[in-house]
Amino acid sequence: MFEPTLTHYLILAAITFCIGVFGVMVRRNAITLFMCVELMLNSVNLTFITFSKYRVDMDGHIFGFFVMAVAAAEAAVGLAIILHLFRHKRSVDVERADALQL
Amino acid sequence: MLSNLLITQFSTLALLTPPVAAEYMALVPGAIVSVLALIIILVDSFHRPGTRRDYLAYFSAIGLALAGFSAYVLWDNTLAGPVFNGMLYLDKFGLFFAILACLAGGLAVLQAPSYMRLVRMDRGEYYMLVLFSVAGAIFMANAADMLTLFIALEVMSIPVYCLAGYLRRDGRSAEAALKYFILGAFSAGLMLYGISLIYGVTGTTSLEFIGRNLSIIIHDPDPAGALASGNLITVGMLLIFSGFAFKIAAVPFHIWTPDVYTGSPAPAVGYMSTAVKAGAIAAMLRVLLIAFEDPVLRGGFNGFGWLDVVFFCAAASMVLGNVVAIMQKNVKRMLAYSSIAHAGYLLVGVAASSASPEFFLHHDTVLFYLATYTAGTVGAFGVLSILGKNGRPVETYDDLAGLGLKYPVAGVLMGLFMFSSAGVPPFGGFVGKLYIFSSAVQVGNTTGEFSFIGLALVGVLSSVAGAYYYLKVLVSMYMKKADEKADTEMVMTSSAKVSLFASALLTLALGIFPGFAIEMARESMVDFQGPSATTQKVQEQGRQQLEEMRQKEASSRVVADGVPQG
Q1: What angle do CA B237, B242, B246 make, to 5 degrees?
Q2: Could you give the CA distance from residue B89 to residue B345 in angstroms, rounded to a whole number?
Q3: Structural domain tally of chain B?
Q4: What number is the average pLDDT over the span B272-299?
Q5: I want to staple B161 with a disulfide (CB 3.0 to 4.6 A). Which of B181, B275, B478, B489 is the partner?
Q6: Number of Cβ pairs closer than 8 Å across A and B?
Q7: Is A27 in the B-facing interface, judged by CB distances under 8 Å?
Q8: ∠ at Cα B227 (B223, B231), nearest 5°?
Q9: Rounded to an integer, what distance in angstroms lies between the CA atom of residue B167 and that of residue A92?
Q10: Structural domain boundaries in chain A
Q11: How many CA within 13 A on the CB side of residue B197?
């Protein structure tokens, strides 16, 4: 029977984090970008919880809760901003958000 | 097993002891600002439509002045060590930044009524957002734990994302908000991952315990163990630093700056380029000087560490910021690149004073420079937010053509702020730059390390290049012919007058009588809580020097009073 250890969880978190970073760099849709950022935050949470369990220490769990709360606040503001952009451009493609490049 | 569990439970219980009354003082400045923000929301929702909201600007500014004053009252009532079970500090360092954030916020809210008249967007949210962000900046400077630091960072940043998108009818504002938001959230994610790795290595999120545990781990006699955690520490440290570098707009994390500054409303840019930078610098100093204090992590003379990274960022920011700013046609964009250059100057101060613990007190150069930078920059954006052309706020050099002669007050004030930012005596910016670069040269001389003198040289040369684009603003204001057909206007409300004259007065005062502010900055570094025993000795020496200086001053005053008149 396969028993996942600390290393497995950490590697999973690292891979998820890298997928998030890669997504922010290559994707063009604002909503997808935002989801990639959320993916990064979730992998951070996984890292925190893993270390917390490994060290039998509650700090990591608490940090995880706060990250979730802040991510929710960020989602509220972020979706409003994306909506705001959509009203002006009729698109959420970040390639088309180029009015400021002089 | 059971005894182990019991001990854990007891230590948890010990952590839950309620804080003593004196500890609540640490919350006072931030709490005043937060409560004020909530009151503003309430007042604004009962606002009668069709009337102006100028009173909200005065209301917020008076509240911010009150918060700043409370920080000043607390100045001599600081506490040793962290409060609230290791979550916050109540020291002069935090209070200095609280005063700075209140100042930047207060000046920025007072400029708003003019700008809102120019863009026809009189909304109450502006004041509330600035106030919440100021509260975040205050708590960020006081944070003693990665948890409070992260929450305060987000409380400071999220309102600023909204401020960037404040102009609802302007597509460019929406674009600025999107860029700031995505990159800001991205950098917060990077920083969080760094925090989680450091937590994994040390098993704690408190800055002081991280510092202690890290030096135990690094000096582990078993090389295999030290190496395994060494990689995690390096990656974590770099990720945390990148989060801060993004907030202070240092190269290579500066990409967002020009676009966001161009698209956002001018008074909000004045706020976000000063208070946000100040809050991030404060938190960065806390993390670097408490958590990553160990000489091995510091690097510099002991190999590669964060000092080298700061050094590189400082040099790159100064050169890139100043060179690219020369090529800009848009004044707001130019000021964005110049703010990148100013981040470079600040990092010169950080790098030089972190070279070795004996230079710890030199960090006061950074604090003083932030004060001069705040006065000059908020003022410059204030002038941009009262001038309009063809029904919209001025932005490019062409928009400003001839306005200096047409509106002498705006012209003179802009000249003052530009001279200060360029570093011309006798204005504040000059003293700030002089103080930072002379500290770097002194560090280079004392340690015999030429690279710090080289860094100061790069700084001086690039700030000379910077004088070109600052003076170009004045050239177009005074020597270019005004466009006859254009419909220019200056909306000088009474609150904008207060804000502009206050920043002008401050710029002059910091240039002519810098002693007061320098002493405050020095005291804040002496009172900085949390560093290791080596640094505490340096702080103790600094405290004695300050006392001696005071006594000398007091005795000379007595002598002067004793001299018979006539």
Answers
A1: 155
A2: 27
A3: 1
A4: 93
A5: B181
A6: 131
A7: no
A8: 170
A9: 18
A10: 6-96
A11: 23
- As given in the structure block, the two tokens for residue B126 are 């502006």
Instruction: Write out the residue range of the structural domain in which residue B12 sits.
Output: 8-527
Tokens of residue B485, six digits: 């057909």
How do residues B361-380 score in pLDDT, each as one tens digit?
999 999 999 999 999 999 99
B250 within some domain? yes
Predicted confidence band at B565 (pLDDT cuts at 50, 70, 90)? Answer: very low
User: CA B359, CA B298: separation in Å to the nearest integer?
Assistant: 13
Among residues of chain B, what percentage have pLDDT more than 90?
73
The token duo for B341 is: 């250059």
Task: State how far the alpha carbon of B491 is from the alpha carbons of A22, B50, B407, in Å.
Answer: 47, 19, 11
Do the beta carbons of residue B256 and residue B336 sit within 8 Å?
no
- Measured from the Cβ of residue B445, the count of other Cβ atoms closer than 10 Å reads 12
Is residue B337 one of the residues assigned to a domain? yes
CB B310, CB B347: distance < 8 Å: yes
Contact between B335 and B381 under an 8 Å Cβ cutoff? The reply is: yes
Q: Does B336 touch chain A (CB under 8 A)?
A: no
In chain A, residues 73-92 whose CB comes closer than 8 Å to chain B: 73-74, 77-78, 80-82, 84-85, 87-89
Name the pTM for this structure: 0.93
Whether residues B182 and A85 touch (CB distance < 8 A) is answered with no
pLDDT band at B566 (very low <50, low <70, confident <90, very high): very low
Q: Is residue B168 within 8 angstroms of chain A, CB to CB?
A: yes
Q: Is A56 on the interface with B (CB under 8 A)?
A: yes
B520-539 pLDDT per residue, tens: 999 999 999 988 888 899 99
Q: Mapping DSSP to helix (H, G, I), strand (E, B) and coil, where does residue B388 land?
A: strand
Q: In whole angstroms, give the CA distance from residue B36 to residue B70.
A: 14
Best of B129, B166, B175, B264 to disrupt the A interface by mutation (most A CBs within 10 Å)? B175
pLDDT of residue A4: 87
Rounded Cα gap, residues B566 and B298, in angstroms = 59
CA B143 vs CA B94, B149, B210, B381, B518: distances in Å: 8, 5, 14, 29, 23
DSSP H helices in B248-290: 256-263, 266-286
DSSP H or E run through B114 = helix B92-119
d(CA B453, CA B451): 5
Q: Which residues of B touch A77 (CB under 8 A)?
A: 158, 161-162, 181
Contact B363, B506 (CB under 8 A): no
Residue identified by tokens 């909306």 is: B491
- Cα A81 to Cα A64, A99, B161, B164: the distances in Å are 25, 16, 8, 10
The reply to whether A51 touches chain B by the CB within 8 Å rule is yes
Q: What is the DSSP letter of B290?
A: I
pLDDT in tens, B215-246: 888 887 777 766 778 888 999 999 999 999 99
For residue B565, tell me if it sits in a domain.
no
CATH class of the domain comprising A6-96: mainly alpha
Edge-to-edge strand ranges of the sheet holding B488-490: B392-393, B387-389, B488-490
Q: Does A42 touch chain B (CB under 8 A)?
A: no
Give a yes or no: residue B554 inside a domain: no
Is the Cβ of B176 closer than 8 Å to some Cβ of chain A?
yes
Distances (CA, A) of B504 to A57, B221, B514: 52, 57, 14
Reported ipTM: the value is 0.96
Which among B146, B181, B192 has CB closest to A78?
B181
Minimal Cβ distance to A84: which of B165, B179, B185: B165
- Chain A CB contacts of B182 below 8 Å: 24, 30, 33-34, 37, 78, 94
> Looking at residues B56-79, what average pLDDT do you find?
94
Tokens of B169: 């009818």
Q: Do A59 and B205 touch (CB under 8 A)?
A: yes
